[in-house]
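[09:14] KT: can someone run the structure on this one? pasting the chain below
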Amino acid sequence: MLSPTDFCASGPAFLRRNRKNAEGTAIMRSQRFTFASRRLLQLIPVVLAIASFNFILIHLAPGDAADVIAGQSGYATLEDIEGLRQEFGLDKPLYQQYLIYVGKVLTFDLGFSWVQKTAVLTLILERLPATLILVFSAVAMAVGLGIVLGVVSATRRGTWTDTMVTVGALLFYATPAFWFGLMLIVFFSLKLDLLPSGGMLTIASGKTGFAYVADVAQHLILPSLTMALYYLAIYTRLMRASMLEVYNLDFVRTARAKGLSERTVAWRHAARNALLPVVTIAGLQIGHFMGGSVLVETIFGWPGLGRLVFDALLQRDANLLMGIFLISSVLVVLINLLADLIYGLLDPRITHK
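[09:31] RB: done, structure tokens below
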């Protein structure tokens, strides 16, 4: 126990240590803010590059909205088709169409869908929440279960539990997602009648409040599970390998030498450091999740961007396709920025410069 004299003598040192810690925290926050600001500024040329690539890629495909609308009418003449192309601006040279499109993108105008007769941004904002709910639910399920199963498998290496987790991960990885989706519908919807087979809401239910949220959650289980199973296998294997690597580091041996339980060592010390590769891969695979939503939303009738992309492809709706691809790409870039910022929270040794 410190005497009053020793306590008074240690006071200035204690204050200096606290001041130093506070200054270090302030510096880290400033670095993160500078890093985030720089990355957001870099988003402008990235968005322009993505818009240019989408424009070139889509206009290389044969056909356009005028052909589709003329085909749907059943009696359009060549003059009618040319009139539609003039109305849509498709008769202009390609470079003029490109300059017009880029100018609109810079003013946050994604154009007009001549097939849907609605502004592209309006259509995207109507469908975007459903896709975000599906994607983030699948990501949370895949990452959360992958981390837990990876830690369990690593802490029980060589046991039957490790074998079951490994075999299950390989099974999910090797099986096509559409087959899992169809089998889930057959088993849980047709055989057991426990979960709805499609849609986002019960038709004409009129539910509000908590009943509405519960209804959406019930419809969300099967599509999010279908999307998550493939990535669950990846994160499980990655977390297991990362845990086994971290187990050989000095700080883990020090924690064991202090007498901490194996569970505390695994979850509080080893797992936090082993998370970094999982966060990295999860951030990079957000684009894969967005792309995979096309298949899952088609199977389960989920009213998101995936279904909208599928319909736009069939209708040659170039403006709508470019708008969806642009918004999806921007979301992927922003989520990768968020993943970079999470690194510093998981491991304070990582600095953002």
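[09:33] KT: thanks! The mean pLDDT is 79.
[09:34] RB: yep, looked fine to me
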